[in-house]
Write a structure and sequence with these properties.
homodimer, alpha/beta, Aldehyde Dehydrogenase, Chain A, domain 1, Aldehyde Dehydrogenase, Chain A, domain 2, 2 domains, 7-stranded parallel β-sheet, 4-stranded parallel β-sheet
Amino acid sequence: MDSEMKALGERARRAAAALALASTEQKNRALAAMASAIRRSANAIISANARDLAVAAEKQLKPSLVDRLRLTPDRLEGIAKGLEEIAALPDPVGRVLSRWTRPNGLEISRVSVPIGVIGIIYESRPNVTADAGGLCLKSGNAAILRGGSDSVESSRAIVACLAEGLAEAGIDSAAIQMVPTADRAAVGEMLAGLGGTVDLIVPRGGKNLVARVQADARVPVFSHLEGICHVFVDRDADPAMAEKIVLNAKMRRTGVCGSAETILVDKAIAGTALTPIIRALMNAGCEVRGDAATQAAAAGVKPASEEDWSTEYLDAIVSVRVVDGVDEAMAHIAKYGSQHTDSIVTGNAATAEKFLRTVDSAIVLHNASTQFADGGEFGFGAEIGIATGKLHARGPVGVEQLTTFKYQVRGHGQIRPQ
Amino acid sequence: MDSEMKALGERARRAAAALALASTEQKNRALAAMASAIRRSANAIISANARDLAVAAEKQLKPSLVDRLRLTPDRLEGIAKGLEEIAALPDPVGRVLSRWTRPNGLEISRVSVPIGVIGIIYESRPNVTADAGGLCLKSGNAAILRGGSDSVESSRAIVACLAEGLAEAGIDSAAIQMVPTADRAAVGEMLAGLGGTVDLIVPRGGKNLVARVQADARVPVFSHLEGICHVFVDRDADPAMAEKIVLNAKMRRTGVCGSAETILVDKAIAGTALTPIIRALMNAGCEVRGDAATQAAAAGVKPASEEDWSTEYLDAIVSVRVVDGVDEAMAHIAKYGSQHTDSIVTGNAATAEKFLRTVDSAIVLHNASTQFADGGEFGFGAEIGIATGKLHARGPVGVEQLTTFKYQVRGHGQIRPQ
């Protein structure tokens, strides 16, 4: 392993041990000081960002990537406010999750503790630097940040502000470190766990990044590869509600992981409900790709291929299929879904409960838009992402999900009988 | 991938989907019927076990391994009772772990659900076949069992009884499957996740088995490699309590993972407390290996090498070291421990809380023996093992820890604003 990376991991491990014991007040003081430092250093950060943008222009980076990279005074203020919002969240560390007393008098408590050292691997979005650093700090975890190389100057300027905040609160600056090298081998070393110092990897970015992390990581990963989210319009749905939910689930924002990609419509109401739903989507500017029944229901529907059912468009495109009731809808979701977020629209409570119970996704909804798949909408505050893995964190990953637990057992001399 | 293994994985996946929806009554009926089948088939199982024992004798297997392999009518009755005890546990599936209502009226519930398909890899202990199968069934998970090759006939006879129980309750027999081949490549395929069908691997066995599973698994693993457990006798300890706890922690059973391997004694009371502790251990038949101060405290103490501090003896051997207070004790545990179970004996509440808060182990105890590191002693009922990983399951792994959760969101037409 590269000796610089090894030393970075060891510093993170030591910082994590101290940070696990930091008081709520100390962590919040650091977050507030970070926000102040960002505001105070706005000019320096914007200058650093301009250097990144100049390189990006030379490299003829795609406009959408340049937009993500660009920092403006407004966006910087958003970053500072984000840190203050994290400070305002309840401390997720030290919560007594449960407590019970055994017949022998032992008192057992399950108490939340930080996970340890978290590696964040992300694309060239400078705002993630502050978000991820702040969320890790609040949850008592040391962060090792590895952002995209196009944002290296911006990220470095932001990390300098985070370090100022840590210093003001008397916290080891190694609590938030940036990988010092743009060398891609550094990512491989993080994924291998940096010699046992990294407890968890969180990738933030597109499918290629997440796929690489999932394939190569030798430590746990919180991530979702894609969100192929469904809305099923059941035979007992209120047609107006169904149309409203479908439209919002697909079109509110098409680029988020909770946006719907496939609409399933129950054959029993397709005759009346399908055409208005398709028209509403088309009127909103959405391309509709459907099976034969859907193509027959409205002009302008393109034929859906087998591949469409497993495609995350992240765009104003939707696939629509007519299915024979909730069972066929659930079978479709089991086959093509990504265990992320799926919704049923129905007025029938029994059908709804069957769907909520059976569909094996992190989030299942009844009569609500899939776009609620979001830590803020769940009341978690800021989130670092959404996880579709089955263990530990599933769904939105906020500061609580960045903690684990230990058992504290209090006795008065108990020994275990033979 | 071997086509037989692939088919086995796919059957497990289908069985898991159905089992997730099985009622408590149905699962308990299956467990009771399994226990009856074990009792009814006692002769057949003992005959199958005799065939395993005959092969073991030919291979001149070690006596300790032969003892683990041997089934007697008493042990079979223990296996049947174990299944009935699992039936008597509360159903861990479908618990509402938390529930809250958002300002927009969305009602969010976090509900426990099975993990899915669990692969159990174990040594030649036929009783694990029934234990693991029963625990997975109760928690709604399909099990793929791969026991040691020396116990293949015994395990097959037990799995036949489990299948009878499943059939009587109308549950797909693929809910508990045994890997049909003794081919070691099958283990590799399980560790790779059987083409995405295995959600979790639980190894049950010695360090070599666990180390291989941890090194090669591409899916999550619940395990502990070793239990290097400590008892720290603080300057404010009651000497009689300390002696009693140390003796129990080390000697109650030396072969369990929660047995203490190292005793740390505060320098401030070493002058009075150390000699009686060493003598008590020696009188109980324990070999004591110590640092210079410990060697000086009693005749017969052997010198401890650097390696001793990180050795799990699993035997009547203990290492003893004199440390300068709780901080040095915690530093020793951080350096040499295995994040399993560690105990402090002290009458000083502040010192105790510092230890409980700082030591980064799955289980930390105050004034109690490390031998309480056990699912039964925690009130979890039967356990499948102890985990020292940080995520999801930490400490004893019982049926609750074999579940995960999903979010069920109930609305009445809510859409997300822009």
